[in-house]
Amino acid sequence: MRLFGKFALVGAAMAVSTALAIPASLAEDSLYLPNLAYRTGPFAATGIPLMDGQRDYIAMLNARDGGLNGVKLNYDECETGYNTEKGVECYEKTKDKALVTQPWSTGITLQVLPKSNVDKIPILAPGYGFSPMAEGKIFQWAFNPPASYWDGASMILKYISGGNLDSLKGKKIVLLHLDAPYGKEPIPLFEDMAKKHGFTFLAIPVGVKEMQNQSAQWLQIRREKPDYVLMWGWGAMNAGAASEAVKTHFPMDHFIGIWWSGHDGDMKTVGEGGKGYKSISWSVPVSDAPVMQDIKKYVLDAKVNTIGEGEFDWVFYQRGVLISMFLTEGIKTAQEHFNAKVITPEQLRWGLENLNFDEARIKALGADGMIAPFKTTCADHAGHAGGWILQWDGSKFVKASDLLTADRDAIVPLEQAKAKEYAEANKPWPTNDECKM
After folding, report:
1. pLDDT for 253
2. Which of 191, 302, 309, 333 could form a disulfide with 351 if both were Cys (CB 3.0 to 4.6 A apart)?
3. Distance between CA atoms of 147 and 144, rounded to whole angstroms?
């Protein structure tokens, strides 16, 4: 049994690349899908179920279908420990034969982003990375479906305001965030919305070394007496924040995290005390969904791979499944369009620009109820799917809202401005001028 806690045991968090790698003799008949994983270090507790879900969906396709259109999928992990420098090393190590790169950190994504124009390898960063990457005309090799951090921030504001952001006028909102590129991602949008709608916004950072001892931050929160605390936390920070919120008697139903702050393993550290805590999520766990039952049959029951106790039902494990589903749908779309089995990275880019997760396709994939419909285009690399509020009931996350959608009219101008600003700061920056809106 794998142990989960604020830190995962290194011995229990070994990468699985050797177990899943396809022999070199079959390389011409396979597609190499590296993943810059983090099963070790202070963020391992969140990384493990996500990587397990990604790995197991690929393993299921290989076992059930023989891969995709007769081509085996060579899923491989390069361990980064969520360290940016190691992540770049992993990228360089894998890029020569990679069909895609999956950075798994906003910091790593930002480092790899300029390289993508030169190496011409798609970056797949579902629900993370640099929010303006959604602007496909400028970031032609980067993809962050099904929704960006700014989409998530907008959905949270829509939820707490009842759909009328002007109702937040005079209220105080605190953002408790990891002091890293990831944690700073939503700040521009929150600042912009605060000016427009008259609420007070205060960002409170949490350093990596402070993740398990946030007493200073929560003392400040007690003094500020905010109406809501929003959280962009990761790894051990989430559990530390939940523990402090319980200790300081902050009303848990006014404590709302982004989708990476809605992890069952983190909330189990506070259990019943965390009841009422919420997070926005673009995915919903549905353990009896056909795709999940196929993973159980072909991978877990068959002992192809093992996972931790209870992990199968967790939000993060099933989100990992969906993330690999995005990738493989991009591959299949490209295979069909180019009439090729072993596709190139450039062909995959086209496939990722033409994802169509409509209700019929989601149902055909066996993922009905797990995700909202979305589609990508050459101009829109995110798709901007909706999400739901998930609420901790003391033992698990349950859906606690109808489908929420982001206010794209408010986000698009900021998205376009920041994308243009990035391109200007990184001249010469190639753009896809052939792409029509």
Report:
1. 96
2. 333
3. 7
Residue 177's pLDDT band, with cuts at 50, 70 and 90, is: very high
Find the helix packing angle between 44-65 and 236-247, rounded to 10°. Answer: 130
- Cα–Cα distance list, 244 to 199, 250, 435 (Å): 25, 9, 48
Q: Which residue do the tokens 């929420």 mark?
A: 404
159 with 239, same domain? yes
pLDDT value for 18: 36
The answer, yes or no, to whether residue 8 has pLDDT greater than 50, is no
Using the Cα atoms of residue 387, residue 391, residue 397 and residue 398 in order, give the sign of their dihedral.
negative
Q: Please list, in sequence order, all residues whose beta carbon lies within 8 angstroms of the beta carbon of residue 89, skipping any fewer than 6 positions away.
A: none
Query: Could you check whether the bond before residue 285 is cis, i.e. omega within 30 degrees of 0?
Result: no
CATH number assigned to the domain comprising residue 131? 3.40.50.2300
Residue 393 in domain:
yes
User: Which residues pair with residue 261 across a beta bridge?
Assistant: none
* pTM confidence score: 0.92
CB contact set of 359 (below 8 Å; sequence gap of 6+): 373
User: E-assigned strands of 244-386?
Assistant: 255-257, 278-281, 356-357, 374-375
Residues 16 and 143 reside in one and the same domain? yes
> Using CB atoms within 10 A of its CB, is residue 421 exposed (0-12), middle (13-18) or buried (19+)?
exposed
CA dihedral 325, 331, 337, 340 (to 10 degrees): -140
Q: Strand (E) positions, 323-362? A: 356-357
Number of structural domains in the chain = 2
Residues 59 and 89 in one domain: yes
Question: What is the three-class DSSP state of 394?
Answer: coil
- Tell whether 420 is covered by a domain: no
- Same-domain check for residues 39 and 101: yes
Residue ranges making up the domain that contains 177: 150-281+389-408
CA distance 129 to 146: 12
Calpha distance 18→213 (Å, rounded): 37
Work out the pLDDT band at 9, boundaries 50, 70, 90: very low
Claim to verify: residue 220 and residue 268 sit in the same structural domain = yes
What are the beta bridge partners of residue 200? 172
